[in-house]
Structure formats: structure tokens, C-alpha cells
p-hydroxybenzoate 3-monooxygenase (Paraburkholderia phenazinium), 390 residues
Amino acid sequence: MRTQVGIIGAGPAGLLLSHLLHLRGIDSVVLESRTREQIESTIRAGVLEQGTMDLLSEAGVGARMKAEGALHHGFELAFEGKRRRIDLTDLTGHSITVYAQHEVIKDLVAARMEAGGQLLFSVSDTSIHGIETATPSIRFQHDGQACELQCDFVIGCDGSQGVSRASIPAALRKDYERVYPFGWFGILCEGPPSSDELIYARHERGFALVSTRSANVQRMYFQCDPKESVANWSDDRIWAELHARVDSADGQKVVDGKIFQKNIVGMRSFVSTTMQHGRLFLAGDAAHIVPPTGAKGLNLAVADVRVLTAALQAFYVENRLDLLDGYSATALKRIWRAEHFSYWMTRMMHRLDDASPFEQQLQVAELEHVTTSRAAATAMAENYVGVAAV
Ligand code: FAD
Ligand code: DHB
């Protein structure tokens, strides 16, 4: 088997890259270890920056996102029993759309299929070879057969647990990591929205987030012990915790609904440099992870793909190598900005068990500042919508 660009992983990064390359006349093959049903049903992110929406629309997969996604012009910060609004559109001229990641995946898979794209599911034993030569390859098992995909470039879009990152020699890599001592308990429930906009709540019991999926399905999260078991949380206990953390002194309450999905995710910040070696390039969670508080993970994966698409186009159309050579440095500027923002949001909003009463007061002081100073609110809003200067 031969193609121009071999892509490992059919997450948002791999699928979008493959489709954008196709639109530029560049061939690719996407290899995915899970089934189509699995990738189309995994519940993850929900917030899309304007730049992400623009690139999805440019790729011709924006119609359902525009019709079914909800445009949000602001969000609320809840703390000390009150709620204060961050008006994203007023402060930045931009907004965000709430549209589930697995719906983005469905749209991208459908577009790849319709275009006759090569997308192999349920591959196993993926390994990368010859990245220091001009003829790299990917070996894998598919349908019980040993296969080899020869290509000009290998793009590792295989998420945080994939094989690509480890294919860059350890001596050339420097990893930066911070693991947080808490996780998020996430639920999906049937019922009406509790609020017109997302609510990020800081409470002495811990952080909580009220998000949405549609008029009838809601998404909520609350800070928990990352080793907590879903089985310990009855629906009643979950609602009691969300009410305690989010309901405001003036009577605004979270609306209970029928919970049909529960999951717990750990939280960490991670950046692997370099994101390229020879003919191997990493994009998305394969190279970096952010805690979900800033809603940046999916958006960063898409931003990497934008840079990489332009670099591969410059190579194939103009025979230029400079954009490919500069990929890691270019992408890392935005990545470090988002890493800082996600870390900052996480530290400001979560219950920090190692924080002294003094540091806890600093969290409140910072929330007062970002909700009363237009300059501070603008900085937060620019980061949230993804237009902060780098
Ligand atoms: P992934 O989506 O992880 O895709 C990688 C793919 O590669 C997977 O399908 C995997 O099966 C496949 N794969 C792995 N190994 C192999 C292999 N060896 N061979 C072949 N295939 C392989 N981000 C936001 O922007 N906004 C949010 O609101 C947000 N909220 C989040 C909430 C939660 C609870 C979580 C968990 C994440 C959230 N994120 C959010 C982060 C976001 O989901 C990820 O950053 C995003 O999925 C990264 O996309 P990706 O394509 O890089 O990787
Ligand atoms: C959602 C997830 C996030 O991490 C976030 O910051 C906001 C919303 C969501 O899944 O809706």
C-alpha cells in the first residue's frame, strides 16, 4: 500500500487533516485502532472556538455544526454565591459554539467516506519505520493480515496513548508535565438547560461546570477524586453535589434530569517537544494535553492541523520545506499559550487541597478581578475564544 501522507488516529486531528489534504489534492490514508461505532460515540469535548468552526466550515463539514450547535456569546463565573458574566462578544468580537466532539467526528467520517477516502478501522500493532529517510512506512495488522503503508510523511494523530510520540528518539525529546490531584466527574442527562450559557463555578466543595448539548440533553461536570468510582455516585448524590456547588444565593438553580451517562477523567498538563523528527510529525493530544477547564484540547488539535496542512501544501505544491521545518516551533507558540491559560483557569476554579487559607482568598481575589476589570476580563475572553496574542 502506498500514499503520500500516512495518518495514525481518526480523532478530530487525523480526520480533519486527511480531509483538508484531500481538498488540496494530496492523498492520505488514516489508520484507526477502534471501530467506527466507538469513535462516533465517545463523549468528550463540547466547546469550539471561532477558528475551529471556520476551519471545519472551510473543509465543507460545517453545515450540521451551524444548524445544531449553539452559538454562545458569553459564559458565567459563579463564586461566593453570586454569578458574573464574561461577555465574549463584547470583549473580543468573537463567540464560541457548543457542539459535541463526537458529532464533529461523525461529520468528518461521513465526509471522508463520501469523498472515497481511505479510512481503516480496527487496526492493531501499529509501528512506524524509516522516519529518518525519505520513504517512511507504517506497519500494522488489519483483518488478520500484516500490512505495510509506504508514504512520504507519517503524521501521528493517535492521542495521548498512541505509539507515535515514542517513535521520536527519547534523546531528542523533552517532556513537560503536571498532574493534578483531582479529576472531573462528567454526566449527560435528559432535561432542559439550567442556564442560557455555560457556568464555571468555584465552590469550597470543589469546581463544577454546567454545559449543554441540546434543548433536551445537558452536560455537567464536577471536581472529584481521580480515583473515585462512578459506582459510588447515585443520581441523588450527584444532584445534591451539583446543587450545593452551583445554585446561587439569588435562587438560580441547576435543573435536575434523568442521568444516562457518567464518567470520570483525570487531569494533567503535558507538552512534548519536539513535535517533529525526520518525516514524522505529531498533532493534537499525541503531543500535548491540557486540563479541560479552558476547553482547549480539541481546539489545539485543530490549530495544529491548520499549521500542518499549510506546511504539507507548501511541500507538495511549491516544493518548499521551510514550513514543515518550522512546524513544531510555530505550533508550540499557541500550545504554550493554551497550556498557561488552562493551568491558570484550573488553579483559579478548583478546590486545591494543598492551598492555604491565604491562597484560597487569592483565588477569590482573582475571580473578583477578572469579573470587574475590563482589561482582565478581556485577557480571559481572548484566551477562551482563542485569539490571545502569542
Ligand atoms: P484523539 O481524539 O484522542 O484521537 C486519537 C485517535 O487515535 C483515537 O481515535 C484513538 O483510538 C486512535 N489511536 C490511538 N492509538 C492508536 C494506534 N496505535 N493506532 C491507530 N490508532 C490509534 N477539548 C476542547 O477543545 N474543548 C472541550 O470542551 C473539551 N472538553 C473535554 C472534556 C473531556 C471530559 C475530555 C476527556 C476531553 C476534553 N477535551 C476538550 C479534549 C479533547 O477531547 C481532545 O483534546 C481531542 O480529542 C484531541 O483530538 P486528537 O485527534 O488529537 O486525539
Ligand atoms: C465542556 C467541556 C469543557 O472542558 C469546558 O471547559 C466547557 C464545556 C463540554 O463538554 O461541554
Q: What stands out?
A: The domain at 5-71+96-176+268-345 is CATH 3.50.50.60 (FAD/NAD(P)-binding domain). The chain is about 35% helix and 30% strand.
